[in-house]
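Run: sequence + magnesium ion -> complex structure.
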Amino acid sequence: MLSAIRKEFLENRHQLLVVSEDYKVLSSDNTIFNINDGSDITDFHPFFFTVTTLFDEEEASRHFFCVQIDHLGRTRYVDIRTKKDVLEKKIYLFLEDMTEHYKNVHQIKQVRNESIIQFNIVQELNNQLEVQRGFKNKFLANVSHEIRTPLNSIQGFINVLKMSNISKEQLDLVNIIEDSSETLVTILDDLLDISKIEAGRLEIKNRRFDFKSFINVLSKTYALRAEEKRLEFTCELGENIPRFLVGDRLRINQVLINLLENALRYTHKGSIRMNISTDSRNLRRLPITFEIIDTGIGIAPENMDKIFESFTQLEKRGLFGGSGLGLSIVKQLTDLMDSDLEVKSIEGEGSSFMFTITLGVSHDQRSKTQEQVAPLVSLPAEKTKGKKRILYGEDIEVNQLLMTKFFAEHGGYSLDIAKNGEWVIEYLERYPYDLLLLDLTMPVMDGFDAATAIRNHSNKKIQKIPIIALSARTTEEEKMEAKEVGINAYLTKPINQALMFETIERLLNRYKKKN
Amino acid sequence: MSVSKKIVLLGHFGVGKSSLLRRFVENTFSENYTVTIGVHIMKKEIMAEGNNITLIIWDVEGTDDFTKYRPSYLLGASSFIYVFDASRAVTYSDLKYNLGHLKEKYSNVPVHVIGNKVDLVDQDQLIKDLEQQEIEHSYLSSAKTGENVERLFQNVAAQLLKNA
Ligand SMILES: Nc1nc2c(ncn2[C@@H]2O[C@H](COP(=O)(O)OP(=O)(O)OP(=O)(O)O)[C@@H](O)[C@H]2O)c(=O)[nH]1
Ligand SMILES: [Mg+2]
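>> structure
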C-alpha cells in the first residue's frame, strides 16, 4: 500500500538510466523523458558526453546540479547523480526533475543580477564623469596658473609705474590698464570658482559680519560706477534688518557684484535699484530678499533659459567666452545657498533679479572696534630696533624686481634673494633670517622640497623659521600639500602688497610669542 | 566518429556568455537578459586544422568568485573561456585573482580570456585600461555584432587539436 503511494509521489520526478561506456542506452524507466533502449544518449542531450569523463576519473559517483534540458519544447532543470560500475563498464544515472524549485531560484537571481548590473552601469558612468571633471579642473588650474604669472608682473609694474613720477594724464592711462587687469583677475577667479562648484568643492562658510557696512560699501562703489555711466543708482536697506548677521559674506558679495555688473553692462539709460528687505520678525533666522532692478535692454523670452547656462553646457555647445560667466556663477551660488533666483524681464524695458537668502542674526549686535582697526602695514617696535631680515626664494627676475620694489617702499625689512631652493638653504645656514618667502615653483630644488628640508634641518633656529609660500597656482591640493610640508601661510600671485606685509607681521609676532 | 571536447564558459553574470554561445551556435542575438542558472549545454561540430571536432560547450551560471564553481561542472574540461564585460570594470578587476584559482586547481587546462561587448566601449581606451591593469586577453568580441565570435571559438578548437 505504502509503496504504491510512494511510487505515485516519485514517479514523474525520477528517472533511472543505464548507459554503456560508448553512450548506448542499456535501459531506462522513462518516467521523465522517453529515451529508447539502444539509442545514442548524446543524441538525446550533449550533457551525456560527460560519461567518458566519468570513466577517466577516480570518483565512483558524482552529483550534477541544475542541468538545463530542453526537450519537446519544454525546459526542465534536473539534478543528475551518477554511479559507475567499472567492471561492467556501465554508468547508472539518476535524474531528478527539480524544475519547480529552480524556477523560483531563477526568478530571485534574475532580479538580483539585473539590479547589480544596473548599479554597475551607474557606477561606471560616475567614474567617467569624475575623470572628465578631474581633467577639466586640472586644466583650469593650469591655464589659470599660466595666465596668472604674466598678470602678476603686469600688475606689479602697474604699481611701480603709479609710484614713479608720471603726469596726471599718464596716471589716467595707467589706471585704465589697472582696471583691465583687475577684470582679468576676476575672470580667472570666476573660472576657478566654477570648477570648484562643479567639483562640489566650494563650501559656504557662515560667519558673523557687519551686514550694514557691507551693503554701504557696495552701494557707494556702485553709485560711483553708475554715475560714470550717467545712470541713477539707489539702494534701499530695510530698517528692520539688524546690523550683524551670520552668513557667507564673500559669496553674497560675489552674487551681488555679478548682478550689479550685469545691470551696469546692459543698462544705457535710466536707473539701477538695489532693494534689500525682510518681512520676517524672526529673532534668529531672517529670510532676506535681495532685488536688483534695472531699466536696461532686457532679455528676450527665448534667451531666458540660456543666460544661466553652466560652464559645462556652454562648453558643450562651443559657446564659451563672450558673455562672461557671471550669471552662471550667480545661479550656482544661490543654489548652494538654498535660494531660488527669480528673473523677470521685458525686452527693451529692463530686468529684475531677485533671490532670498536666510541669514542668521548675531546674538551680539555690538561692534568690536579693536578687531576692525587691526593695523595693516606697520611695524611698531621692530622699526627702532633694527630691521628684521627676510629671505626670498624666487627664480623669475621680474618677480625678484617687483619684490625688491615692494620692500623698498615699505622700508621696514631688509630683503635678500636666493634663486632656487638650494640657495635658500645655503643662505639660511650662512645668515640669520627671521622669515622666509618662498616661491613654490623653482628649478633645481622647488619650494616644497626646500620647505621639507628646512623643517627637517638639524639647526633648531632654521627648522622653526616662519615660511610664507607664494604661488600662482591656487588649487586646494597645492594648499594642502604646502600645509603638509610645514608652510605657515600661503599667498596667491599676483601678490597683494598689503596682505603680504600683514601676513609677514602676523607670523613674526606669532613666532616671537612662541619663543 | 569525430573527437568531442568539453569547453566551459566562465565569468561574472551578465557578461554575455550565453549570448556568445547563441551567436556561435545559432547565429542569433537578443538584447533581453535571461539569467542562466546551473548549466546549459550546447554542442557544435566544426572543422579545424582539417579535422572534424565536436565542441561540447558548458555555459555555466555566472559568478564573481571562481572558488564557488561546482567542481562537477568544470570536470573533464579541455579548455576554459573566461569572459568579461568590457563595459563594466568590475567584471575584470578581479580577473587575476580568479585566474590564479584556476591555475591552482586546473593547472593543465588552457584559459582563453575574452573581453565581450566591445561594441559598447571605446576600444583604444579599453586596451589602455587593460594594459594598465596588466590583463592579457585573447580576443575582444561582441555577441551583438558578431565581431570575433566565430574566430575565438575556432582559435580555441585549433589549440585543442594542437595539444591533442
Ligand atoms: N551590447 C552588447 N550587449 C551584449 C553583448 N553580449 C551580451 N549582451 C547583453 O548582455 C546581457 C547579458 O547577456 P548574457 O549572455 O545573458 O550574459 P551571461 O554571461 O550569460 O549572464 P549569466 O547567465 O547571468 O551568467 C544581455 O542583455 C545581452 O543582450 C554584446 O556583445 N554587446
Ligand atoms: Mg548566461
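>> summary
Chain A has a mean pLDDT of 83. The longest helix of chain A spans residues 99-163.
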